[in-house]
């Protein structure tokens, strides 16, 4: 009983620190070791203040005896080791005031617990430092890949210019050009991309758009069919010619949209500028429409998106602006 009374007085002296421990970490461990049950856990979890929670833990220790205090110390060793160190130093201080006979072992225990707490803190810091180093290495690797992607076309073009550049006395000035290209390759990738796009010619952007609009593989017609296709433009009527050109334009729009629809800025183009608010009448008609009507409506909407994207990309100035901002 004397030992239990000393334990309870120790817990009362450190009641404030015991109540400040996060309950979501301590209470499940106390329940696992059998110090409290599930009902006590819910009661302590819903306690209105830290002091009431600490009183509940102390009362549970007083009911179970000294073995419950040992279970509490085991839980504190992983959840709050500094409080366990305070317990040991407090016991050493009390025994030191009574006499110097048994204070040595208690001081040794307190120092061991303090070293254990220090080691746990160092392990946490080491793991955090390791994660930070891994993230830093990933960032450096990504920046290096970005530098290489943005600088590779410029380096090749600068090397070509270096090979073609000849000074007045007939000697090549390749060393200066190589120094220039490598210094530019190590510059800011975003600024480098913007400069590259600002130097891009209108014809290059036009070729890029037209290459997307062309089909990848064109069928080679036979000799008889080629003659027939060559004569088709002369023999077809005006309506047939309009329908054929309309089909070709739709095909170009579809190819450009399918290649660029995953880009974020293309999806912003595909949306209409001012969408009309859906009226309750239109919502009701959408619910009542059949499968065929729904398919036709979705086909019309998709065709409208393809047309908007293609019409925007035909304007090369707008294309250059979008590439400069989002490219």
From TrEMBL:
Residues 232-241, 250-264, 283-294 have a biased composition (Basic and acidic residues). Residues 150-174, 208-307 are annotated as: Disordered. This is CARD domain-containing protein. InterPro entries: DEATH-like_dom_sf. CDD domains: CARD. Residues 163-174 have a biased composition (Polar residues).
């Amino acid at each position: 009983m004397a030992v239990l009374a000393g334990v309870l007085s120790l817990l009362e002296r450190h009641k404030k620190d015991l109540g400040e421990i996060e309950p979501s970490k301590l209470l499940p461990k106390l329940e696992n070791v059998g110090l409290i049950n599930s009902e006590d856990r819910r009661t302590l979890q819903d306690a209105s203040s830290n002091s009431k929670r600490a009183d509940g833990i102390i009362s549970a220790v007083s009911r179970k005896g000294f073995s419950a205090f040992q279970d509490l110390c085991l839980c504190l060793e992983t959840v709050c080791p500094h409080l366990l160190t305070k317990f040991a130093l407090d016991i050493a201080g009390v025994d030191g005031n009574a006499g110097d006979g048994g204070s040595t072992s208690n001081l040794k225990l307190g120092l061991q617990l303090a070293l254990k707490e220090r080691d746990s803190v160092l392990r946490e810091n080491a793991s955090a430092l390791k994660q930070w180093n891994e993230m830093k290495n990933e960032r450096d690797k990504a920046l290096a890949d970005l530098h290489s992607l943005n600088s590779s076309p410029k380096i090749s073009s600068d090397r070509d210019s270096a090979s073609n550049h000849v000074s007045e006395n007939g000697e090549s000035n390749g060393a200066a050009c190589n120094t220039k290209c490598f210094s530019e390759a190590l510059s800011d990738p975003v600024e480098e991309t913007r400069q590259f796009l600002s130097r891009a010619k209108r014809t290059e952007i036009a070729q890029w758009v037209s290459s997307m609009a062309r089909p990848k593989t064109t069928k080679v017609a036979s000799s008889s069919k080629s003659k027939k296709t060559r004569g088709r433009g002369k023999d077809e009527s005006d309506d047939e010619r309009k329908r054929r050109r309309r089909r070709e334009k739709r095909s170009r729009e579809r190819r450009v949209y399918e290649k660029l629809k995953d880009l974020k800025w293309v999806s912003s183009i595909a949306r209409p500028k001012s969408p009309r608010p859906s009226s309750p009448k239109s919502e009701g008609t959408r619910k009542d429409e059949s499968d065929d009507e729904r398919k036709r409506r979705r086909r019309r909407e998709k065709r409208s998106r393809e047309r908007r994207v293609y019409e925007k990309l035909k304007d090369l100035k707008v294309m250059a602006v979008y590439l400069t901002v989002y490219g």
